[in-house]
Amino acid sequence: GVEVLNLTLYDQEGEVFGRPEQVELDIIIKNGLTIVCELKSSIDKAGMYVFGRKAEFYAKNQNRVVDRKIVISPMVDERAIP
């Protein structure tokens, strides 16, 4: 089956944004795979970097392996593409 979660976690140490802040994540769990998903109207290089930090924070905070990371956006700055 598929499980979709919208999580809001508190980053006390400031690992994601450099200061304590809430971190919002969309998680899809399908057949045991953990997928971190970001849906944005547009994303640039800095946004992609923050998304990566969010995924790392989730993995550490929830003690889970992130199998995939997916960004869905109609407007992606070419510098944001790895």
Automatic annotation (TrEMBL):
It comes from the Bacteria. PANTHER family: CRENARCHAEAL PROTEIN, PUTATIVE-RELATED (PTHR34314), DUF3782 DOMAIN-CONTAINING PROTEIN (PTHR34314:SF6). This is Uncharacterized protein.
